[in-house]
Amino acid sequence: MTMEAIPAAPARSHHKRRPWRPDPLTALSAVIVCAVLALTVWGSALAPQPPMRQDLFGAALPPGGEHLLGTDQLGRDILSRTLAGARTAVLGPLIIALVTAVFSTCLGLLAGYIGGITDSVVSRLADVVYSVPPLLVAIVAVGVLGGGYTLGIVVLSILNIPAGLRSIRAAVLEQKALPYIESAWVIGKSGTHIMWVHILPNIRPIALTTFFLAFTYAFVDLSTLSFLGLGVAPGTSDWGRMVAESRVLVFQNPWAALAPLLLIVVTAVCANLLGESLEGAAAEKGKAR
Amino acid sequence: MKASSAHQSGTAALTTRSDPGSSGAPLLSVKGLRVATQDGRTLVDGVDLQVAEGESLAIVGESGSGKSLTVRSVIGLLAGGLSASGSIRYRGKELLGAKEKELARLRGGGISMVFQDPFTMLHPMRRCADIITETLRDDRGRHLRREVRRAQARTRLAEVGIKDEHVLNQYPFELSGGMRQRVAIAAALARDPSLLIADEPSTALDATTQREVLDLLQRLQQARGMALVLITHDLRVAFSVCGRVNVLYAGSIAEVGSAQDVATTPLHPYTRGLLRSEPPLDRKVTDLVGIPGSVPSPDSVAGRCPFSTRCTWATDRCRSRRPELKAAGSGRWVACHHHGDLGSHLADMPADIEESVPAPSPDATAVLLKATDLHVTYDAPRGRKGRAVHALKGVDLSICAGESVGIVGESGSGKTTLGRSIVGLVHPTGGSLTLGGIDATSYTRLPRTQRAELRRAAQIVFQDPYSSLNPVRTIGATLGEALGVRLGRKARPHEIEALLERVRLPASYCQRRPAMLSGGERQRVAIGRAIALEPQLLICDEPVSALDVSVQAQILTLLREIRSELGLALLFITHDLAVVRQITDRIYVMYRGEVVESGPTADVLGHTRHAYTQRLVRSVPGAATTTPSGGTRPSREAGEQD
């Protein structure tokens, strides 16, 4: 009897866990994103020349010789400024994305799982905030109050939360109705335990999406703020700011604007590709069948 | 109508002229059909079948047998990424590789199809009359005039047994599941096809409606002289509707024969196992398990007998060579190396259990659960007026310690709500509920200690094994969590392994995630999680209805064993009368939120008193045509065919 009741382990080779093997495009994106992240830490150290050193006699030089990418209108080395500019360009969006992802996940979990009044309050607040265009508010707030980069980060962090919150809440509602959540409740597990241990890992793909989407939006928005002269202080090497300051040089030394611009585009695209692939991998892992 | 002259007198006579391999001019002939995915996995591996004009053929198989893919290839409906090879001929014309335009002309007119789910099959924004006449054109391919279309729709509705003309103007969402399935059948027959394919047409319906739809299909098939291919997982359905049965296993054919022959004398060990796995309605049997394990993927059994991994009589020959489909008597075909020498084994059937009518124990101390006048009302959705649903309308129920009680009813009867309210997932709006001496009527108002006691009193196992386990956690973590609740500390590995052993799973499953387990194995884990708290009452809400027949029997056996090992009480909620017969001592029959009949199982099912219960018992496939067991009793008069 017992012998009969033990079923043979079914051959389901395609369900075996494999190490994460990204496709070439994802791998390339991952390498580029990592490189950009490394630049935010060591960018200034890697710069061949001090990024702030001016040389008015050597202004707007074309690429070559001492200056690999030439110089800008104040004679500052473009390569050094581009390397050093990664810090403000990437760090801000990273903070915004983290804050957005953490807050929208927590609030979405609470609103979705607890429901009732908590849900109503959180969701209505989110609706109100969602109706405000983030970049516009950031421009006005920074323009009126000053405060530049830091205020920009704060404003964009808050205004990006509702979008993620909504999708997280929807995902939580979907999970909450499944029997495995009900089973956990019936064996006597607390709401906090169910939210953290059972629901959170299963909505990880959505949380990842939120993070990467927020990063991309914030990256472009912050660069725009800098471009408009509202972000970092004048003179700071920052990609958005460099594009704005160097656009007059576009015929003497196109690299002055092109190098930071290319990095903005490439970073944004790679972050998106990587995010998509990670989401896919996370969703695959959470598949029920 | 058009084909009414070709009335079939019987289907048994057809069996000889339509066996695989024979010539003649079959309506549909499939040879060596293979269906594979893009990454090279085989799903259907060499299926041959023939359908003669006016014949009814059942294709029976469990999930993963490839039965749906086979017929979907015929009609050109394979999902993207799947490719079919081999040969499919309809009236001698090759369909595989034919132009989409030609296939489109054939669909509806030559071959038509009815699907499983009546709720998504019909266009939700069109009226039934339009749905039925959508494909109708006159001789020159023009749309018919409005009055003609209406008249057509009316006669066709009458043909599927709908006399009410209002239905013509109704939208599908206004109709019940059974009505929708009838409208779908009428639409499929609109252009008078010579072959109708029905893919599990009754599976999504309630028992009583199921019977009506199957009867309708059988009547239409015979009246029109149309060929019918019925896909089903249920042998009893196949036997009651079709003349000939094709048993599919892991992507290839195991056995072909007339319904009567296959029912009385199965030639393939798999068919025999399936027959034994089907619990009989009229009696309780000792041993339910017909087949151990679960259906393998066709690739994992390539080059050998696909059933050899689960067959009691498998030899080295079975494991090294694939048996071919060979003739075995008149109109019978079997793919088994040993079909000649297994005859006596295959006829051997499990013994009956003497059903002891449980002594009614009014002993108040032994009562574990008592529900008195229990009401549950679901509020209307916000913003909509007055559509509150009364799921339970005053239910009285009592369960004594160690007793096995069944609740039987169709969807909407409130049986699931009752189970869920016992564990606090639904809040009763009236009446009282006492569980293990604690008033469990309003769960949320109880202090923490009492709630913990209630957890130990009752646990629940849900229907869908695919969503009742957290997909990202290992089996060990899931079971460990439940054990931890009882022990008040982290569970040790050997304790988790002991629990796994209790539900007959190997200890190595600790490290696995649910995706690596089959449906039956997952249900074992779910049972393990529930009994980890050592409850006095285990509620099983349709625990086997999402499983294959052979696996279903294993889970029922496990529940029986666990019950006798742990002495726990069982509340078994199901729509399946045969299943409830096997596992319960006492049953309650529910209908529209009320208990209409209750008493000892054998009594209630044997001598039904309430009209609804009688209808329920009659609607079990095969109940009226043959004995409910479908001839699984060793009836010798048919004799051995080989």
Word description of this protein:
The complex is a heterodimer of chains A (289) and B (642). Chain A is 70% helix and 0% strand. By secondary structure, chain A is mostly helical. Chain A has one domain (28-36, 68-285): MetI-like (MetI-like fold), CATH 1.10.3720.10. Chain A is elongated. In chain A, 43% of the residues are buried. Chain B has 642 residues and is an alpha/beta fold. Chain B is 30% helix and 21% strand. In chain B, α14 (475-487) packs across α15 (493-502) and α14 runs parallel beside α16 (519-531). The two termini of chain B are 42 Å apart. Chains A and B meet through α1, α7 and α8 of A and α13, α14, α16 and α17 of B.
Supply the CATH class of chain A: Mainly Alpha
CA-based gyration radius of chain B: 26 Å
Number of domains of chain A: 1
- Give unreliable regions of chain A as ranges: 1-16
Mean pLDDT of chain B: 82
Quick one: overall form of chain B?
Answer: globular
Subcellular location (chain B): Cell membrane
Organism (chain B): Wenjunlia tyrosinilytica
Keywords (chain B): ATP-binding, Cell membrane, Membrane, Nucleotide-binding, Transport
Protein name (chain B): ABC transporter ATP-binding protein
Task: Pick out its properties.
A: about 290 residues, 11 helices, about 70% helix, B: about 650 residues, alpha/beta, Rossmann fold, 2 domains, about 20% strand, disordered N terminus
Describe what is shown at a glance.
The complex is a heterodimer of chains A (289) and B (642). Chain A is mainly α and 289 residues long.
